[in-house]
């Protein structure tokens, strides 16, 4: 009997040890696999070139908040830093118009001026200009600047980014009420409606309607729209005064072509960055502006072959429009060709 009892005890003990060993091996393999997956995840989410840095030291984003040269860095910013970035591309000839425009925005919003004429010092007599950010490059238009200085990781702290021209009259515009309406209607890309002027807007979509707060569709001239839910009948704003959410701007920035500086053609493709465009893109009617159509940037062109400077700029715009449309067509065709055939 004794050998039988001993055998049973040994068998039970062996079985128990085997189970423990198996569980330990299984748990070990599980933890090793989790560690491996986490390592792969960390490696894939590292910015390129940071492999030698510990993950906790990597700071992939920045901002345009101005800081002090002294004191505790944690005390540099107010408790509620600006969540809105307003940019104008300007020349000194439109100083008065820009000054009036900036006065329509709250003092704690971030103002950034891109100077295409190289003149900065002559803005110093304006109080707000002393705390604004100034970037200057001679004869460069708006979309050249934003591609180079408004990377999504730079403007990440801002809920909304205004990318505006200089020749806008904002007498009937309230920035805070505008943002309220943008949030109310869930707009990712928007613009204020264009009020009455001596010329009709190029696109009916941007013309102000007096009976609504916001609209996101229109009846365009015959032949302009391939679909009632596509630009320019819906999902459309112009490039003179667009406002982008943080999410939309991350997409739009990547669509801006590095060598195409005038932005022609972007407006007809913005819907790709806020889908569905016929819901997420709209024109705010109750906060409206007037486009003064001052051709000052055209004066920065070069006189060639007897043509006026502005004519050369216009020719470049048209050429860029053709190039951009060609790239859109080729990219979509390539994307379609890469899809699996069923």
UniProtKB/TrEMBL annotation:
* Lineage: superkingdom: Eukaryota
A Pfam family hit: DUF707
Q: Any transmembrane segments, and where? A: 6-26
Keywords (alphabetical) are: Membrane, Transmembrane, Transmembrane helix
Q: Which InterPro entries match?
A: DUF707
PANTHER family, A to Z: OS06G0731900 PROTEIN (PTHR31210), STORAGE PROTEIN-RELATED (PTHR31210:SF43)
- How is this protein named in the record? Uncharacterized protein
**Lineage of the organism:** Eukaryota, Viridiplantae, Streptophyta, Embryophyta, Marchantiophyta
